[in-house]
Every structure is written in structure tokens, then in C-alpha cells.
Amino acid sequence: MCLGYVDGAFGVTARGGQLSYSATAAAGKATAAGAMHNNDQFPAGKMVPVFWNLTSKDDGVNYGHVAIWDGQGGFYWEGNHSSTPNHLTYAELTAVLNGQQPINGKLVTDSFTGASLIGWSDNLEGVQILSK
After folding, report:
1. Residue 109, CB-side half-sphere exposure with 13 Å CA sphere
2. What does the pLDDT profile of the chain (132 residues) look like in tens digits?
3. How many domains does the chain have?
4. Virtual torsion, Cα 69, 66, 25, 54, nearest 10 deg
5. Torsions phi, psi of 62, nearest 5?
6. What is the superkingdom listed in this entry's lineage (predicted)?
7. Are 6 and 65 in contact (CB under 8 A)?
8. pTM of the full structure
9. How far apart, in Å, are the Cα atoms of 71 and each of 1, 35, 44, 58?
């Protein structure tokens, strides 16, 4: 759900290729394209996708998570257990991903574990978001 939300927000469609099945797969595409910035130095004034590792408790697969850095200190995130977008600060999002704060009434860590930042990208699904 989160990757579909982010792809849609940036207007990314399949366009002759296939969209990734998970945020981790999309992060892998960005890494392979040389577009992944493995840090939390998100660009001021620019919206970009930000990726995390997040492993499912059900099947042990790292589906990851992706949110949109708003360029001003916050993140837009398609909410857990809801299609309602949330706007969170970095501290709030970190607390949610570490099971210290519920979102939409539930803890992410009920379903997932292993949250760690991968980084942000200027490319999403092969589409350049920011000029290099």
C-alpha cells in the first residue's frame, strides 16, 4: 500500500516496465541506478521518497516501507491499517516504526519488525524525481 501511494503521488506508472512489488524492491532499483542516498540528509524544499527496511512477522520477508519527505521536516505516509494519509515528523515516524507510537490506532510492530533507514532517492521506479 505504501509504495502504491508514493508511486501515485509522484505520478509514476508502469510505462512499459513493471512497478516494484515492495518498497525494498523499489529501493533496490534506486540503488542500482545510483540514485539512493544512504543517509538522513533529506533535501530541503524538495519532496523525495524515503525508504526503510521493515520485515513482515508473518512470512519473514523484508517488504520495507516508503514515505514522502515533504521538504520541510515532515513525511507523508499512507497510514498503517488505513488508506488515510498521515503527516508525521521524523521523530514521530521513527517512533511509529520502532513500535513506540501507534498510528491509526495500531502499532506497526504488530505486523512488522526490523525498522531501519535505507535512505532517500532522487529516482523512483526508474523515473527521475530530482535532477542530479
Report:
1. 14
2. 789 889 989 999 876 578 999 999 999 999 999 999 999 999 999 999 999 999 999 999 999 999 999 999 999 987 555 566 789 999 999 999 999 998 878 888 888 887 999 999 999 998 898 876
3. 1
4. 130
5. -85, 90
6. Bacteria
7. no
8. 0.91
9. 22, 17, 5, 34
